Every structure is written in structure tokens, then in C-alpha cells.
What we know:
- The chain is mostly helical.
- The chain has one domain (3-176).
- Helix content is 72%, strand content 3%.
- It contains 6 helices and 3 strands, in the order H-H-H-H-H-H-E-E-E.
- The chain has helices at residues 3-27, 31-36, 43-67, 75-101, 105-128, 134-155; strands at 164-165, 170-171, 175-176.
- Strands 1-2-3 form a 3-stranded antiparallel beta sheet, with no helix packed on it.
Amino acid sequence: MKSRSIKTIGIFIFFLCFALAFLLYDAFPCFLTSVFFPVSTSLFECLKMIISGTVISLLIQCFILEKNLINVKNLCLGIFITIFIDVCLFVIFYLPIMLGFGTSLFFTLAFLIMISIFNQFIFYYFIFIKDFGKLNYLALSGIIIIYIISGLLTYYPLINDAFFDKNEHKFGINTYII
């Protein structure tokens, strides 16, 4: 299988991983899944869905590439840069429209498809250019820090609208507004 075919399949892998990330905590509620996957429908938890969906899908694609004897460089750097760009796209495009017009299933799906296609270009650029060596370790540290902060903010959320789940009227995983 050529890398172009894997890129095309990767778009569907991204989309499925976003859906998986959205549903995984509900299927397996525990501490581990609460750190990596959304526990509510707050804006912050939507970011966790995008981050974890991206990481899972890129790891699956790297596994497929390696199985097809295609050498992958800069895996951690590619994942970190892709996560960073995903978060920026969410804040710049999706968030203002969602706050202005509310959530729409059509717009959410369209946004996830757009981000899936864009991710393919970013990630594949980084895994096929020259090896950045130690910068990959720094990127791995960045990914770990993102998940540590994510876990802390899940259990100790800031009290503002980004962490408030309007459906369940709560902040984070354990605190409820009466």
C-alpha cells in the first residue's frame, strides 16, 4: 500500500477516532479514560476529544505505515504539531461559530472532516522530512504535559464557561452547580 492510499484511509481513521474518543468515557468510565477522553460536553472536553482522537488516529496510521515498510521520522513532533494546529483551528473557526449560533450536527461533522483532511497534510509533511532527533523528545514531553494538564483540569476545573457542561449543569467530572 502506498502512502497516498494510507493518507486517504487516514481521513476516515481520523473521523472514526474522533467518534471513538467522544464515546469512550461513557463506555468505560474510570480515571484513565477520564484523563484522555471527554467526560462532558463542555468546550474544554471537546478539546480533549480532538486531542485524543488525533493521537489515536496518528498512531494507527504510523502502525500501518511501518507494516508497509514505509519509514516514519519525527512521530512525536508530527503528533505534537498536529495537535497544536487542531486546537488552533478549533479556537479560531469552530468556537466562534458555536458560541454565536449554537451547536449543529452538520457543522460539527463538517468541521471534523475538514480537520481530518488538514491533519493528513500536516502530519505527513513532518514524518517524511529530515529527522529532527532530540526535538522529538521535547515534543513527547509536550504531549505528556498536555495530558497531565488535561487530567488536572478534568478533576479541578476552572469555574468559567469553557468548563461548564450546560446539559448536566456541572463543571468537570465531580462538581455540580446547584
